[in-house]
Amino acid sequence: MSISVKPRFITFEGIDGCGKSTQAKLLIQKLEDEGKEVVFVREPGGTDISEQVRNILLHSGGDEMTGRTEALLMTASRAQLTKEVIIPSLDNGKWVVADRYADSTLAYQGGGRTIDLEWLIELNQFATFALQPDLTFFVDVLPEIGFERQGGSPDRIERAGLDFQANVRQMYLKLTKRFSDRIVLVDGNHTIDSIQDVIISTLIKRNFI
Ligand code: TMP
Q1: Is residue 98 lining ligand 1, measured as CB closer than 6 Å?
Q2: How far, in Å, from the CA of 204 to the mean position of ligand 1?
Q3: In the chain, where are the structural domains located?
Q4: Residue 26 belongs to what H/E stretch?
Q5: Distance 138 CA to ligand 1 centre (A)
Q6: Considering the domain 15-205 in this protein, what is its CATH number?
Q7: Strand order in the sheet with 95-99
Q8: Distance (Å) from CA 56 to ligand 1 centroid
Q9: 155: β partners
Q10: Would you say the CB of residue 108 lies under 6 angstroms from ligand 1?
């Protein structure tokens, strides 16, 4: 039974192939079964402008895009999505579940591309209009496992390789410690159902549902 009426903003994070998208979809199903209105977004993308930016980010060129360009485009996409979709949805009483949000920039452009973390945190503050997720699930797997699970042809960032993904993962681990009130590490090696159980029990423990 629902004891909370406040709409929540929940994000899923992790390296490529960690299984977060599956978990995000299952959570939405559960929340909708509980009678909540839920908006799903995925980053980069989610608005006309942001999808165009996604296309540049994931499919244009090879190695020539600088880490700074990548960070600015990721956060440009985020600013549009936040203003156009996320904030209005929360204001209208809808829950928002995001497949990636600001932590991805800290992990990929900070950990992966070695851009200064504190600067990226500032950039995110600007791009998100200072909106913070209420809760973030970091679905943790080793890069080798993530690589095995990836389907289809890899995008420009996935092509950066296993060492890159390892650095991204290390940054996620660091962020989980630093923002321990908000980020919950979930072991992505368990079955889909048992991971979902952990996610639901976390929401119950926090009185979100
Ligand atoms: P996806 O594969 O989860 O759709 O994400 C697209 C890629 O973009 C993925 O490799 C992670 C990367 N990414 C960043 O590098 N920085 C960001 O801020 C976001 C949102 C995604």
Answers
A1: no
A2: 29
A3: 15-205
A4: helix 20-33
A5: 14
A6: 3.40.50.300
A7: 38-42, 95-99, 9-13, 135-140, 183-187
A8: 12
A9: none
A10: yes
